[in-house]
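Can anyone check this?
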Amino acid sequence: MNKKIVLLLIQDKPNKIDTMTLPQNLKYTTEHEWIRVEGDEATVGITAFAQGELGDIVFVEIETVGETLKQGETFGTIEAVKTVSDLFMPAGGEVQEVNPALEDSPELVNKDPYDAGWLIKIKINNPSELDGLLSAEQYQAMLEA
């Protein structure tokens, strides 16, 4: 007789991220994007929590290079094995570059969401929009709520 055993692990807070692991130099959105500002330019990606919720990422589609988008507008989509999710601008600006490594290795978003798995680089139009974003501590509190 062939028996299969299924082990199910249940966590209180799935994908709980310790504040110590959240980069303190980033700002976060309630939609789980992050932004790293360097002058009037910035790098944008999704958080470790978001990639964990999505699961294995298989494709990233961003066709907005050269476009100027408003804060909150969709700049692309990210596809996991079972779902497709929109990606939102954390601040308004011109999309200048897409991470070229994601074309062949979209799993970088899973493996290293805050560094090698970045999504886009933008030129920020209105730096004051950054004031409405969350700090690492505020983002952590949102996840735990």
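Reply from J.R.: I decoded it. Residues 18 and 140 are 8 Å apart (CA to CA).
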